[in-house]
Specification:
The chain is of the alpha+beta class. Helices cover 66% and strands 12% of the residues. Among the domains are: 1-26; 31-103, Immunoglobulin-like; 517-729, Histidine kinase-like ATPase, C-terminal domain (Heat Shock Protein 90). A 5-stranded mixed sheet has the order 9-11-12-14-13. The protein starts with a helix and ends with a strand.
């Protein structure tokens, strides 16, 4: 009675624990309004306008008191981001008011660097990386140098995968800002190899677009849409898709994706993005010639920009003025540019102008062009003179050249040839000066690119060195373990070298070997039996397909099907006595079988084969016709019942030198719905093909130590689609 009592007690305990856990999970899944504040870690001062978001969920910003409120659940991860401090990740464990303390701001980093503080003694990797980010837009070489220092190996210094990923992400940010998208692509890829990250993937897509690899950019972004993203990330993805389609001239898709981003931004109250997206939708409509729609969105962006700040309002006015210019509404254009000039002058040195178009010389030049387009030459001349003066003061030779040339043309057109000649001579002088400057810039750019490339190679060399050291350490550790293990074995072997023990071991070994051989022979016999069952099963199903063609009087289709079927049957029968065949032969058999099924159900599905080129197909062996039942199941029970046309995907991917992953995936009705279509007789009978396949795999794994591993899962959350993964291992 003791054993049953013990089992009963254990069951009660386990049931109670499970019930308690279930109750906790139900509580955890309930949303609540999480309140908190973001403060400086040293001064304890609140920080306003900090982005607070939940991965795949809500988005908000802190108010002037540094406080926020956001809908969350237990187990969620808060992401607290700002340009002024390092991103903080906070796990939600309870519904209490929280205080998030952030690390020092960039100004403090600058102070440390300027004072020559020993960064290595302070915080090592993190401080170096913060310094790199601080100098990112100021000094590319210095920024890269700090990344290099962060990755340099040290006696007591180890770099984690996450840190390695952050370093290469920063390096990619540097490259992207300094117009080196090809290097940025390489570094973002290295970052993602270490640690998958949606933000880095978005940056990679932008780098692809900057490098004019639009297809890669689109593919990367479309894959991201399928993942769990925050509201802010979704906006970034759809906005980037809109940018890519706009760059390729596809205005319709551009507007669609911008609108998707705008809807999410409005719902999540991401105000800066709302302004930007209205402006971009206006640009896309203007590109397609839908001027009324473009003007409507430009009006929205102007109103929203005015509510943000002067800098943003000025930038938006310039965009709208360009639109009016394209639409030949010169009076509206001139009015906006004059307002822009007034605001630029009012801001003075406080204006942080990154856009070359937002300079007094450029705005004066464009106003003059608008007057010229209306043949108002006398009104254009003063603006050109102002443009030339401002360009000369700011050393803007490009605008100066264009303005002087335009002034010369006006004087020529109004008949003042002396002034026209004088202006033209000045134009020639500016062109010569600009030519010399451009040559210098080209030379400097070439030198800059060489230096950046050298530093990049240095970092890659450090990374390879680090990986080599890790491999050496691992090998040395394994060798030490092997030596110790051998010493232990030798010790016990010597102690155990007694004749009677040897005799007993020999007798036991002989007995074990005989049993194993008998078991192996039984398994071989079972495999042959299963193969003999598989072939008639397959032939029966195939002949049913032929019968269906004959039934509808499609003689030609039946003949073609029989021709291909005979080829398949010949191959199947040739391999029927083999325990294993090369993977290449199995793929050929499978391709021929799928072709036959598609011939019959061409209106039900398309199919796609993908074989990793790095796989040596002759090195891997597989039992013949092992994959066919899974494909048959996908077609007959998944895709055949689907109303619209489905897709069957069969992929062969290399995991490592000894492992291949085989994926058979369909977007059919799924296993659950498939069971509903079965007759009562079919429900009583288990699929012979699938049953035999499972038995074959079980026997093979017993004989060859987990040679094949199979998992079956649904593709979509609504239980539709089936994904079969087979892991095939080399002997």
């Amino acid at each position: 009675m003791k054993i049953p009592l013990f089992i009963f007690t254990a069951f009660v305990i386990l049931f109670s624990v499970a019930a308690y856990s279930q109750g906790n999970r139900q509580l955890d899944n309930k949303s609540f309004m999480l309140k908190g504040e973001v403060v400086d870690g040293e001064t304890n001062m609140p920080i306003a306008k900090v982005n607070v978001e939940i991965l795949g969920g809500q988005y908000t910003t802190t108010n002037l008191s540094g406080r926020f409120a956001i809908s969350a659940k237990i187990g969620d991860e808060l992401i607290i981001k700002s340009d002024d401090f390092v991103t903080v990740y906070y796990a939600v464990t309870k519904n209490d008011f929280i205080t998030v303390r952030v690390e020092k701001a960039k100004e403090e980093i600058e102070s440390s660097v300027a004072k020559g503080t020993n960064l290595k003694s302070q915080a090592g990797f993190k401080v170096y990386l913060d310094s790199a980010r601080f100098f990112l837009k100021k000094d590319a070489q210095k920024s890269i140098e700090y990344v290099t220092r962060a990755l340099e190996p040290g006696r007591d210094k180890t770099i984690s995968q996450k840190e390695n990923s952050q370093a290469f992400e920063t390096l990619g940010d540097i490259n992207l800002f300094w117009k080196q998208p090809d290097l940025a692509i390489d570094n973002y890829k290295r970052s993602l190899q270490n640690t998958p990250n949606s933000d880095v993937s978005i940056k990679l897509a932008k780098a692809f677009a900057e490098n004019k690899n639009y297809q890669e950019s689109t593919t990367t972004l479309q894959n991201l849409i399928k993942q769990t993203l925050s509201a802010h990330q979704k906006v970034e993805v759809y906005e980037s898709l809109g940018d890519t389609y706009k760059a390729t001239g596809n205005a319709i898709k551009s507007v669609f994706n911008y609108q998707m981003a705008l809807d999410i931004a409005k719902e999540s109250k991401i105000k800066p993005k709302i302004t930007n997206l209205n402006s971009k939708i206006g640009e896309a409509y203007a590109q397609s010639g839908a001027l009324n729609e473009a003007e409507e969105y430009f009006d929205n962006s102007l109103k929203l920009a005015k509510k943000e700040n002067k800098q943003r309002a000025v930038s938006e006015k310039n965009k709208v003025a360009d639109f009016y210019n394209q639409n030949r509404e010169y009076d509206k254009e001139i009015q906006l540019r004059e307002e822009t000039l007034e605001e630029l002058n009012a801001m003075g040195k406080a204006a942080k102008v990154e856009d070359e178009a937002l300079t007094p010389q450029r705005q004066n030049y464009k106003i003059a062009n608008a007057f010229v387009a209306q043949e108002k030459y006398e009104q254009a001349i003063p603006y050109l003179e102002k443009s030339i003066a401002e360009a000369d003061k700011n050393e803007d030779l490009v605008v100066q050249k264009d303005a002087v040339r335009k002034l010369s043309e006006i004087y020529r057109d109004i008949g003042e040839f002396d002034k026209a000649t004088e202006s033209y001579q000045r134009y020639v002088e500016v062109v010569d000066e600009l030519y010399v400057k451009k040559e210098q810039e080209i030379s400097q750019a070439a030198r800059f690119n060489r230096e950046i490339t050298q530093k990049q190679n240095r970092i890659i060399s450090l990374e390879n060195e680090r990986k080599l050291n890790e491999s050496r350490y691992k090998l040395a550790f394994e060798n030490q373990e092997l030596v110790e293990r051998n010493a232990t074995i030798q010790k016990w072997v010597i102690i155990s070298l007694v004749l009677i023990v040897l005799l007993l071991i020999f007798a036991a070994y002989t007995q074990y070997k005989n049993v194993k051989q008998q078991k192996f022979a039984n398994n071989l016999l079972a495999l042959k039996s299963l193969r003999s069952q598989m072939n008639p099963h397959f032939i029966f199903n195939a002949l049913n397909s032929v019968n269906s063609f004959i039934a509808v009087n499609d003689e030609r289709a039946a003949n073609k099907y029989l021709t291909d079927f005979s080829l398949l049957m010949r191959s199947v029968l040739e391999n029927s006595e083999e325990d294993f065949i090369p993977l290449e032969k199995e793929i050929e058999l499978l391709q021929l079988y799928v072709k036959l099924e598609h011939f019959r159900f061409k209106d039900k599905f398309n199919y796609k084969f993908s074989v990793d080129e790095t796989i040596n197909l002759n090195e891997f062996v597989i039992p013949p016709m092992l994959l066919q039942p899974y494909v048959e199941n996908a077609v007959w029970h998944g895709l055949r019942y689907k109303e619209e046309k489905g897709l069957l995907e069969i992929n062969f991917k290399k995991i490592d030198a000894k492992t291949v992953k085989i994926i058979i995936q369909d977007d059919g009705i799924g296993r659950t719905k498939s069971k509903e279509f079965k007759t009562e007789n079919q429900k009583k009978q288990k699929s012979k093909g699938m049953g035999n396949t499972q038995k074959r795999i079980a026997i093979l794994n017993e004989m060859y130590k987990d040679k094949v591993d199979v998992t079956v899962a649904n593709v979509f959350e609504n239980s539709e689609g089936t994904r079969v993964e087979l892991i095939l291992k080399k002997d």
